[in-house]
Amino acid sequence: MRIGENKPAATVAPPSGVARRAGPAVADALPINMDNASVMGIPEAELTPKVRKAIMALMREVEALRREVARSNARLSDMEKLADQDSLVPMYNRRAFVREMSRMMAYATRYRSPTSLLFFDVNGLKAINDTHGHTAGDRALMGVATALIDQVRTSDVVGRLGGDEFGVLLAHADEAQARKKADQLGSVITARPLKWEGKSIEVGVAYGVYTFKPGEDAVTALAAADKAMYDHKIAMKKART
Length: 241
Description:
The chain is of the alpha+beta class. About 50% of the residues lie in helices and about 15% in strands. The radius of gyration is 27 Å and the shape is elongated.
């Protein structure tokens, strides 16, 4: 899920008594009661030029308030996205990811629906930074993020947990399904080497899989997935020696 996906924008209620329909013009928006020939409850006979002028001024203020509410809604939506988005890649930051994780865990517990967490760690990022510079390292991270985003469903959640670590939440996925998906994502990332200054730099990942248990909290689940990732990293190093 990219940042802001499937997330309703914040709303600000209009002032009491303000109609929600935006009319084409102030005059058209005047609430006229044709049966009693009145405007805003004022009989037509009492609509002196001074009263009509006051009503028009009031309606202009109402329209201005409507426009300001729309601008406020847009600003709130932008601020929410910025607060949730990672500073480097187009996905959730750790705070937002943990929040979404807690929601999915609560849903999984309530409806007894299997949900799993994949924990990815980019191998050799320090070596890329030291050899080719931090810009190359950032490009490697963006490549991993793109691969994860491209390969998950819209119902899943992806986020950067910090540094070279990424998380993926798989809705309605048991442990076997999650492991299969983790293997597939790892293969996709490895198959997309970083192209940098005429060189092809392999980017690999170690990963851990953890399926939530009822009643667990996000901190416990993250720690378990992190440990599973570390065990996988150790196994990969032993296999290369």
